[in-house]
């Protein structure tokens, strides 16, 4: 059985990646992180999605990125930006950027892939509809793939896991349509940076990008928002 490791956050993009990997015929091993994030409900979402989308396993690795700080997602003293104009979203990295997060996450995924003999690592980054994080760009993924080829025993044998980013150049609407064709229940996902109880805030960058994606896809948005548009 061909195996793949899928970075699963509990959000829209990573859930779609899990469905894509499953559809490609992989035995899917989901990997989530308890990294000191303020929004810990995403781990419950990830667990439910892993079960619903047929993952063979789901691991949660604990990392104390809150000890490093520098992000509104790990430091309660920093406010999550709200109601930013659309033209500002995707520019300079906002305060919700977690320093080196994807580098760290992919490094752990690389270790797991090597231990499992997996041939691919799936990550749900995309650039057209994003907050402008530096570790979501093609250049970063290419550099990490090169690292995987020289940093692992599998790489020395020419068998380094591929870094698969199928959503990289897609708009949110395209991602949503693809996921719906594969049976993803987006009501199970949550993208919000700063939920209000069980509801998404409706005001952060992630909520704005998600809401716009459903509108452009022409399908109902199943998200419960604390504030409507």
C-alpha termini separation: 46 Å
The tally of helices reads: 7
Total beta-strand segments? 5
Broad structural category: alpha/beta
Largest sheet: 5 strands, parallel
Regions with little confidence, pLDDT below 50 for 5+ residues: none
Mean pLDDT: 94
| CATH homologous superfamily label | HUPs
Give the helix level as a range of percent. Answer: 25-40%
- CATH class wording: Alpha Beta
CA-based gyration radius? 17 Å
Assess the beta-strand content as a share of residues. Answer: 5-15%
CATH topology: Rossmann fold
Q: What's the number of structural domains?
A: 1
- CATH-scheme architecture: 3-Layer(aba) Sandwich
Would you list the SSEs in sequence order as H and E? EHEHEHEHHEHH
Query: Quick one: overall form?
Result: globular
What does this structure look like?
With 229 residues, this protein is α/β, with parallel strands linked by helices. The chain has one domain: HUPs (Rossmann fold, 3-Layer(aba) Sandwich). The protein has seven helices and five strands, in the order βαβαβαβααβαα. It has a five-stranded parallel sheet with strand order 3-2-1-4-5, with helices on both faces. Helix 1 links the parallel strand 1 and strand 2 (27-34). Helix 1 crosses helix 6 (172-181) and helix 6 packs across helix 7 (205-217). The longest helix has 16 residues, at 101-116.
